[in-house]
Write a structure and sequence with these properties.
The protein has 239 residues and is of the alpha+beta class. The protein is built from six helices and nine strands; from the N terminus they run H-H-E-E-E-E-E-H-E-E-E-H-H-E-H. It has helices at 5-51, 63-73, 162-165, 191-194, 198-201, 212-236, and strands spanning 74-80, 100-108, 111-122, 127-134, 141-148, 174-175, 180-181, 185-186, 204-205.
Length: 239
């Protein structure tokens, strides 16, 4: 039977769509292992950035180089809700809903230089993913990174820029006057415009102009994640 007119056009378009769909599905499936590897490498690279390596990773470093550095410098732990290290358990073994949390320890030889842990929260448009690292004292921020989000370019997306992340370095998350945990707050604009007390200002960082809700999301996620990990850090804190 010979197809004519609109019927021919419809059948031809349908065949093309089916072929393209199967082709795209095949390509997507074949690339999935590589995509998963790149995602895993990106996470490891962000952990290494957060802990502030003594020798920063070279821009020319290959995935193999990053993996080698990670395996040499980072010790993976899992802690429970009471801050105890869970023996013989790795972060990848944690299941959704488990009251266990991954912890990444940066060491040079036997010396611990930083602790890093993941953060997840909500910004204006998306879920924010990042890592926060503390110094060995358990109170001073060593670094922070954001590796995945969908915030507005030029506004909320500034959380991934060095100028914003560098604001956190050296800040402390412990109020020695009140003797309690005090997570860092992202101010609405420059800290000097809203916080006049010099001591209190130490617990704030400059916000992003036009991205108040993203800043609020960052503040909430830091507070929430620090609360989870505080039972562990309270054991090593020397205050």
């Amino acid at each position: 039977m010979q197809l004519k007119g609109n019927t021919y056009t419809f059948v031809f378009a349908l065949i093309v769509c089916v072929i393209c769909s199967f082709s795209l599905a095949a390509v997507s499936r074949s690339l999935k292992p590589r995509q998963e590897l790149n995602f895993a490498m990106d996470i490891k690279k962000n952990i290494l950035k957060a802990v502030g390596l003594q020798e920063p990773i070279s821009p020319q470093a290959t995935p193999h180089d990053i993996l080698e550095i990670y395996n040499q410098k980072i010790r993976e732990l899992v802690i429970d809700a009471q801050g105890n290290v869970v023996a013989d358990m790795k972060p990848e073994m944690i299941k959704a809903g488990d009251a266990y949390y991954p912890l990444y320890v940066y060491q040079e030889g036997e010396t611990v230089l930083a602790y890093a842990f993941p953060m997840v929260g909500h910004g204006l448009w998306s879920t924010l993913y990042g890592y926060l690292a503390l110094e060995p004292d358990g109170v001073t921020i060593r670094g922070i990174t954001y590796y995945k989000h969908g915030e507005t370019p030029g506004l909320g997306a500034e959380i991934e820029k060095d100028w914003f992340q560098n604001n956190f370095k050296g800040k402390t998350i412990w109020d020695i006057k009140a003797n309690e945990l005090r997570p860092i707050t992202v101010a609405k604009g420059p800290v000097s415009n809203s916080v006049q007390d010099e001591y209190k200002a130490g617990f704030y960082v400059d916000g992003i102009s036009g991205a108040t809700l993203t800043g609020k999301g960052v503040t909430e996620m830091i507070a929430r994640e620090l609360k989870k990990y505080d039972p562990y850090f309270s054991k090593i804190r020397k205050i």
